[in-house]
């Protein structure tokens, strides 16, 4: 069964539908997970066919630009510390979907990493390492468990790296960081914006709030494979014309070329699946997740996050942390709180984030945490990118 849609990058060269084997589909499903979304982008009424006019494409690009600049429009004077940031070495942190039974084992040979799991037990009220190492898989895959598990294991990977020869030098050289959905909290903890303990408390509440929001509505997520983002938006528009307002869908995760996650009401998702072939999509894959993450369906979680964030001490990060919401770094603690509260209802701008860092001429990057999902995404976006995985 698919884990959460916030991480898996596998954006392979897809075989034609007639050549898809059951093995390929099964393996592909197990890889499509780390996906999760700035406000929903809608196109003006007009042509709804698979192609779309050049003017419509231009308008769509304009809407995207408007959406991802929302954060900068709200910026305050104290939020411009990283306005003209330089970047050469990046740390990437994975999101929900990277979890796998057995993770955390390597961390136990490094005292500082093992200590993080011990601290986590006191905060979470259960033995996190036992679940990470022994499962069962169904328990580890649940939203309320997987989010803390990935957060702790990813920061343990930092300690594993620190213990290696030359590891501290690598850590000192990192001048930008980011994380996919949940991974943004890990990146903020690494940057010193909040303590390990406070970050874990936030992540614990985030997982619980997202699960509760999902339980309160009937919603779903689906990956659309083989289309560019403009075509996927047109597909969403076409589906939305056939369903009620409460069932409408939107792009929830701009993951990488040819792989975008759509979230919304079940009927809207079903309409996307029914229309996908007419838009020349290679396939759609329904994601086995709790609900429509990174959409308005997560709105009930926002007030709980806002309250928790208001009570949390957040400091200016020591290095830029790129936001999932607008692909920009923020330095003002109050702005960071606002961004994190909005993140659960906003599409993940991961493709733009990676492209932005590549344009900044990042020459070396590391993925810290379970799996190698981020590396796969980065390579899909830029084949020449140099990225190394550090697991725990």
Automatic annotation (TrEMBL):
Under the heading Pfam families, the entry gives: Acyl_transf_1 (PF00698)
SUPFAM superfamilies linked to this entry: FabD/lysophospholipase-like, Probable ACP-binding domain of malonyl-CoA ACP transacylase
Residue ranges occupied by any Malonyl-CoA:ACP transacylase (MAT) domain in the UniProt entry: 92-391
Q: Name one GO molecular function term.
A: [acyl-carrier-protein] S-malonyltransferase activity
Recorded coiled-coil stretches: none
Q: Where is the signal peptide?
A: none
Question: Known InterPro entries for this protein?
Answer: Ac_transferase_dom_sf (IPR001227), Acyl_transferase_dom (IPR014043), Acyl_Trfase/lysoPLipase (IPR016035), Malonyl_CoA-ACP_transAc_FabD (IPR004410), Malonyl_transacylase_ACP-bd (IPR016036), Mitochondrial_malonyltrans (IPR052760)
Q: What is this protein called?
A: Malonyl-CoA:ACP transacylase (MAT) domain-containing protein
